[in-house]
Amino acid sequence: MKKDTTRRTWLRQCTLLGLAVAAPGLRAASPARHAPVILVLGDSLSAEYGLTRGKGWVALLEQQLVQEKIGATVVNASISGDTTSGGRSRLPALIKRHAPDIVILELGANDALRGLPLSMTRDNLTAMARSSREAGARVVVVGMQMPPNYGRKYAEDFHAVFTGVAQDQQAALVPFLLKGVADVPNAEANFQADRIHPKESAHPTMLANVWPALKPLLR
């Protein structure tokens, strides 16, 4: 009896001290797996502008994660009309609050619409990607393209900003968020009356563009 009592006391002490060595016949429990936090920092394309809540591509991403049985939390910090400057100023507080494992940067379109210098867009995206990485998060850069009426050279230079930042910052890249939406025949049918914001029916395609870049980071 004394021997059994001594053994129980020893096992209880091991548990309290958190020792890795298990007693004969016992198996240590595996630590709980951390559920990654995905932070989406975007503009109206991610903020469900003009849509019923829960119908945008970010909400569809949450559903996709459930279907794929991937335990992850999505934080949508997108604001309609936001620029890369706005995102850059908001990001530090968001990182501090949510401690994201993955940061999706979907910003830049409003920079172009407002005629802001491409160098500013590049600097802001670079700063956001770098600060996210320094905080321990992996980064997805979501690329955009401008319509032909902006001029071929400007369109090429604008698109190159996203690819360049992704390469320099070792980030995953979504080449074009609106691929299959804005670059198809009769593309106007995919947009709301303002011809800027995609309809609800286009958002599954937008998610399909993001998913191949995001999924490998969730493994």
Gist of the model:
By secondary structure, the protein is of the alpha/beta class. The protein has 7 helices and 5 strands.
Account of the protein in words:
The protein is of the alpha/beta class and 219 residues long. It has 2 domains: 1-31; 35-218, SGNH hydrolase (Rossmann fold, 3-Layer(aba) Sandwich), CATH 3.40.50. 42% of the residues lie in helices and 11% in strands. It has helices at residues 2-17, 57-67, 84-98, 109-113, 118-134, 152-168, 203-214; strands at 37-42, 73-76, 102-106, 138-142, 172-174. Strands 2-1-3-4-5 form a 5-stranded parallel β-sheet, with helices on both faces. Strand 4, helix 6 (152-168) and strand 5 form a beta-alpha-beta unit. Helix 5 packs parallel to helix 6 (152-168). The longest helix is centred in the middle third of the chain and has 17 residues, at 118-134.
Keywords, separated by commas or semicolons:
single chain, 219 residues, alpha/beta, Rossmann fold, 2 domains, five-stranded parallel β-sheet, 11% strand, globular, disordered N terminus, TAT_signal, Arylesterase, Ester_Hydrolysis_Enzymes
Ordered list of secondary-structure elements with their pairings:
Layout: H1 2-17, E1 37-42, H2 57-67, E2 73-76, H3 84-98, E3 102-106, H4 109-113, H5 118-134, E4 138-142, H6 152-168, E5 172-174, H7 203-214
Parallel strand pairs: 1-2, 1-3, 3-4, 4-5
GO molecular function: phosphatidylcholine lysophospholipase activity
Pfam families: Lipase_GDSL_2 (PF13472)
Protein name: Arylesterase
